[in-house]
Amino acid sequence: MLNTRGDTGMTLKDIIHSDPDILGGTPVFVGTRVPVRILLDYLEGGEPLEEFLDNYPSVSREQAVAFLEEASRAALAQIA
């Protein structure tokens, strides 16, 4: 389940949230207005995590890595 603690010790609530008053409810990294989709777009486009973090310094490395760990767990849980 996505709300379990990962290796970073962060819960999903520490990583992302959705608020209708922030970008119309688009899921963003907590404490930012950066949609999580942008991280996925960077990685899908072959860009390294460093490039994303350089361009969106309001997102911490810990948040980005924790999000990717949670997404990985969710994907693997779907096929298990």
Characterize the structure shown.
The protein has a single domain, classed as Orthogonal Bundle (Arc Repressor Mutant, subunit A). It has a two-stranded antiparallel sheet. It starts with 11 loop residues before the first helix and ends with a helix. 49% of the residues lie in helices and 5% in strands. It has 80 residues and is mainly α.
Roughly how many Å apart are the termini?
12 Å
Tell me roughly what share of residues is in helical segments. 40-55%
* Reported CATH architecture: Orthogonal Bundle
Global structural class = mainly alpha
Secondary-structure blueprint:
Elements: H1 12-15, E1 16-17, E2 28-29, H2 36-44, H3 49-55, H4 61-79
Antiparallel strand pairs: 1-2
Write a concise keyword list for the protein shown above:
80 residues; mainly alpha; Arc Repressor Mutant, subunit A; two-stranded antiparallel ribbon; 49% helix; 5% strand; globular; disordered N terminus
